[in-house]
Amino acid sequence: MGYKFGLIGHPISHSLSPWMQTKFIELAQVNGEYKLYQGSPDELENVIKHLREMEIDGFNVTVPYKQVIIDYLDELDADAAKLGAVNTVVLRDGKWVGYSTDGEGYVQSVKEKYPNLLKRDISVLLLGAGGAARGIYRSLVQQNITHIDIANRSLNNAESLLSLKESDTLTSVLSFKEAEENLSTYDLIIQTTSVGMKPNVQDQVIQLNNIKENAVVSDIVYQPIETKILKEAQNNGAYVHYGHSMLIYQGQKAFEKWTGINLEVNHLTDELEQKLRGE
Fold first, then answer.
1. Which residues form the SDH C-terminal domain (predicted)?
2. Of 4, 23, 66, 253, which one is the catalytic site residue?
């Protein structure tokens, strides 16, 4: 009998996770399958019951259940507990254990593209303060990066991320206008909102006129691959980091937690890019 993996969420019919995790299964040369278990909030109890009964080996969790799923778990990883969100569940010794691999996957994707970037003394700007920003902020703090500012429309929401910092983390909460005015001070700018995602491809959260030379601009949106903010970054002489690579590496981290197998997946980043570009 092979591994049984899956994804719960709603809606998830267009998810790329089955394509990605099937690639991982083939790379690892193990028997297994990865299926979608879609259910509306009214159907979630039945989905959970079904996964329990089939003794699924592990599953991913996406919106709108990253917080709700915690009520159904037996154990919670310390970081997932601090973040208040789970995207990966592992069956271990008959118990469901919850983890968050989003931030960890993001950091790994940056390291693969820019191995020397994430140093302690760089200055980082996070755009947005939602669930993705929380995971990324926490993982950057764990990389011992001390200067990480947060810009958001709601300053209160941005301030909620401060509970994730360490004593030596320096973080200012800014408006988007203030972020634009101070843009030249940042080495890495990370766009974590859904702004610029299809079909609203002309939207952009801030302008980059004041960007630092040789800065890196990262956008976690991956449809389209080249968002408007990334195009402007390149036009202004900055480097870019595409969002689909985060998807690959958070999935790789989940697969490793399920199987104990650490795969080399960098080539799949290129393959997914071609797939998203329709090549």
1. 243-261
2. 66
